[in-house]
Amino acid sequence: MTSSAIDIAARRLAAAWRSGEPGAPVRDLIAAGDVDAAYAVQDIGTRARLDAGGRLVGRKIGLTSPAVQKQLGVDQPDYGMLFDDMDVPLGAEIAFSRVHQPKIEAEVAFILSQDLNDARLTTADILSAIDYAVASFEIVGSRIAAWDITLVDTVADNASSGLFVLGHEPRRLREFDVVNAQMTMTCAGKQVSQGVGSACLGSPVSALLWLARVMVERGRPLARGDLVLSGALGPMVAVAPGDRFEAVIDGLGRVTASFGAAA
User: Fold this and answer.
1) Largest CB tally within 10 Å, which of 108, 162, 253, 260?
2) DSSP E strands: which ranges in 43-94?
3) 0.85 exceeded by the pTM?
4) What confidence category does residue 61 fall into, taking pLDDT thresholds of 50, 70 and 90?
């Protein structure tokens, strides 16, 4: 993999982002399975957003479902960067055109009270570093036309990140069952997705441990105050103009997201 191919892939994704028109996959430039090259493309996009004044506020974990991993032929999750302009205040309407080909999934979101910068992190370190959790929506999007993605496509595309919405009912870990909590998502009152905490790598806490270790290895460790979207608890759902979603996670409360009409 040459640096020129990585640069071309980054420019292709950036052009799709700016224009709002999804484009071709980047797997013609990145060899199948070359995850390091895909993250190099993602890093270019991250630096560009930071150079433009963006603020990095956390990470999202993707591919936490065994079924999705099997579909893409991988055996581990991926991650993407979360920036301040991805945050949608609870109750605010989301312009449908704001996310490329939007889909939505319900997750447990964690906010950290400690830096996680030791390569020897353990589950105990993670448990002590979680300040609180809230119910959340991740609104994913793809700069690749028709969601025609492989692992390297989604990793390069910032793990198909879009927006996020946080619920307003913070809970300490001891106040709810993070492993067995049931999630139900509805759209206009009709159930469209259902799942449980254990669907996320056995536990959202285990997903966070995976991420924290990887972030240390890659030189961008998680820090106090960071937000982590730990991964979907149930199947993602395609969004249509005018949709209104609500997700309830037992013991953790609810979160809502409403979309405007198409432009």
Assistant:
1) 108
2) 56-62, 78-83, 93-94
3) yes
4) very high
